[in-house]
Amino acid sequence: MIRFIADLHIGDKGVAEKLRGLTVEEHDALIVENWNTVVEGFEDITYVLGDIGNDKSKSFWPTLHKLKGRVILIGGNHDNDIEELPKFTWQIMGCMEHEGYILTHIPVHPDEFTRWEEYGQVYKGNIHGHIHHHDVLAGIECGTAPFCYFNNKRIDGLCKECENAILYKDKRYFNVCCEKVNYTPLTLEEILKLNE
After folding, report:
1. What is the separation, in whole angstroms, between the first and last Cα of the chain?
2. Which of 27, 29, 86, 149 has the most other CB atoms within 10 Å of its CB?
3. What is the Cα–Cα distance from 56 to 14, expressed in whole angstroms?
4. Is the pTM of this model over 0.70?
5. For residues 37 and 184, is the Cβ–Cβ distance under 8 A?
6. How far apart, in whole angstroms, are the C-alpha atoms of residue 84 and residue 22?
7. What are the structural domains, with CATH classification, of the chain?
8. What's residue 64's pLDDT?
């Protein structure tokens, strides 16, 4: 079985406490418990779409070794310990394609979908992490220009620049950060159902 999750941040006290409201011990134990409930053995592959641990602390390595199955890591902005990562992961990549979806840590720019289409490559969407509990949002064209918004500020309702632009979730993007998937790796089918 193949599953996906992002932004584990194992051993990261700042993320555990400030972003997720848990102690680092509760946080790490929750991830291990939920992971090992669905990932059964070596035949299972889990793609971790970046930020597997806290690159400032080596304390997360013993926790990572408790996770079942094989891990393929799509590198994130906190995955800097290149010497140690191969000891835990089966493979490390920058991005890849899986069944018509591009797997990345940071969401791809919306223009990339059009650029790929020009060369005959059509992607169904982007499975990603990085933006934690936020979604990639898009706007209805409103006489100025269409826009996308995916930084760390959340806007609901009307765009502040144009009262005619209503924001909505861009359905090409599938955020599998821990916060969005209940700290549990999901199959592609589960991700698609969650985003209906």
Report:
1. 22
2. 27
3. 11
4. yes
5. yes
6. 26
7. 2-133+172-194 (3.60.21.10), 137-170 (no CATH)
8. 86
CA distance 68 to 42: 7
Q: Name the β-bridge partners of 184.
A: none
Instruction: Read off the pLDDT of residues 94-123 as tens digits, 9 standing for 90 and up.
Output: 899 999 999 999 999 888 888 878 788 889
Q: Which token pair is 28? A: 């790490």
List, as one string, the DSSP characters of 40-71: -STT-EEEE-S--B-TT-GGGHHHHTTS-SEE
Beta bridge partners of 48: 5, 73
HSE-up of residue 119 (Cα within 13 Å, Cβ side): 6
120-165 pLDDT tens trace: 888 999 999 998 888 887 755 444 444 444 343 444 444 455 555 5
Phi-psi region of 143 (alpha: psi -120 to 50; beta: other; left: phi over 0): left
Type of residue numbered 56:
K
Token match 């641990």: residue?
53
Using only C-alpha atoms, the chain has a radius of gyration, in whole angstroms, of 17
Distance set, CA 182 to CA 70, 146, 157, 167, 177 (Å): 20, 32, 26, 25, 9
